[in-house]
Amino acid sequence: MLTRRIIPCLDVKDGRVVKGIHFVNLRDAGDPVELGTRYSDEGADELVFLDITATIRRRKTIVELVRKVAEKVFIPFTVGGGIGSVEQMDELLRSGAEKCSLNTAAVAKPDILTQAAQKFGNQCVVLAIDARRSKTKAGRWQVTVKAGTEPTDIDAVEWAVEGEKQGAGEILLTSMDADGTQAGYDIELTRAVADAVNIPVIASGGAGTLDHLYDAIVAGHAEAVLMASITHFENYTINQMKEYLRDRGIAVNL
Amino acid sequence: MLIVIDYNVGNVKSVCNAFQYLGCEVELSSDRRKIESASALVLPGVAAFGFAVNALGELDTVIKDLALAGKPLLGICVGYQMLFDRSCEFGTHKGLGLISGNVVPIPPGRVIPHMGWNKVALPDDMALFAGLGPEKHFYFAHSFYADVTDTAAEVAYTDYGFNLPASVQKGNIYGTQFHPEKSGKHGLAALRNFARIAEGKD
Fold it and tell me: Which residues of A touch B162 (CB under 8 A)?
């Protein structure tokens, strides 16, 4: 039976992990390789590295990052943040990334998903959707781009369905309302998207307790759960998360 | 020297990294002479089937002849799928035909791709899994699978609502649908086993 996945997410800027990593016993809390190895050793099922470098150097630093991580980390990892072309994906995959996530570029030209799937297979193609609850339409969410700064008129559920059709093999679904709150995933959003597509959905944004993970899987129908703060601050170890889920009847790789 | 076949697409680097991490001599190459003198060959795969077969070009007969002559060969993911007769991913494509069977879509009615860690029942006579016990989780990421019809091949299965072939062995030819290079310590153990097989044939 396929297990549900626990995926820590690391924000990276200029090749360094940023945003509150509070592990004890780390020589260098900003080193993506050391952190990636640590999470892998702790039993993480996958990792996501999100490059938030806002400069022209981004493209170079992200490839270097992937190369270094891939030398030491032997679980799958996804890289995302500013990827704009199939050629760039090719470079990242060849450097050792298992998957690439596309967000703004896919909204601008959905065809990039098709091209990538035909070249690399759809299992490499992650569609990242940053969704915000619509202020005008109840029970709907709108897609935002450029790291959540720019709203669009696109409906998140419809975009997920279209993304699957175009060739996405997975959806990384972040609730911009819940992100950073630690108050729980947006279950309604997660379920609306997960039920509308056949490909796996990773719930993201809002994880604060073990219950939240369980709810995203059972009530939200997510195949995987992504978290940042609750692992970075050592509120829970990966093992604790998996034991908790296992004891509540969810198949995990433990 | 292990040679990982470079066909210029997808994540072939991770396989090399894993063997290097294990202390093996390994090189990524598409050079025919190097392939011919290798102790063993690894055919990796992160690509669509048709793209991978085209990218392999005339190396396909080289690899096939060497495998038939007894050189250990490990196919991974799409590289594993290429060991079979044909695939219908984005059109019909011919494989290497080293193991009988066709690559077909995972039947609907479940989440596709089959993506994540699934438990594989490990037959105790499959050399790739020596020392790993009766079952372990490995990382899968695929939408097509090989329907193995070769009676001479040993098969390890995983459960995805049906018995999904996860690994095959036919003499000196090995293959895994999952990614051992992305399956943590148990994946590395399987690769170490393959490296030992390669040394034995050196």
Answer: none
Spell out which residues of chain B touch residue A120, defining contact as CB-CB under 8 Å.
Answer: 9-10, 46-48, 51
Contact predicate B3/B27, CB 8 Å: yes
Write out the catalytic residue numbers of A. 11, 130
Q: Scanning the structure block, which residue is given the tokens 């990334």?
A: A97
Contact check, Cβ <8 Å, A98/B141 = yes
A5-247 CATH fold: TIM Barrel (3.20.20)
3-class DSSP state of B52:
helix
Q: What is the CATH number of the domain that holds B53?
A: 3.40.50.880
Give pLDDT < 70 ranges for chain B: 9, 46, 201-202
Q: Which domain holds residue B91?
A: 2-200
Distance CA B43, CA B64 (A): 11
Q: Which of A4, A74, A253 sits opposite B182 (nearest CB)?
A: A74
- In angstroms, rounded to a whole number, what is the distance separating the alpha carbons of residues B170 and B148? 11
- Cβ atoms within 10 Å of B80's Cβ, excluding its own: 29
ipTM: 0.91
Task: Quick: pLDDT tens for B83-139.
Answer: 999 988 878 889 999 999 999 999 999 999 999 999 999 999 999 999 999 999 999
> A12: which 2 tokens?
């990276």
> ∠A202-A206-A211 over CA atoms, to 5°?
85
Which helix (H) or strand (E) element contains residue A64? helix A58-72
SS3 state of residue A212: helix
Q: CB distance B118–A2 less than 8 Å?
A: yes
Tokens of A127: 């569609």
Distance, CA of A95 to CA of A93 (rounded, Å): 5
| Six-digit token string for A20 | 């509150």
Amino acid found at B199: E
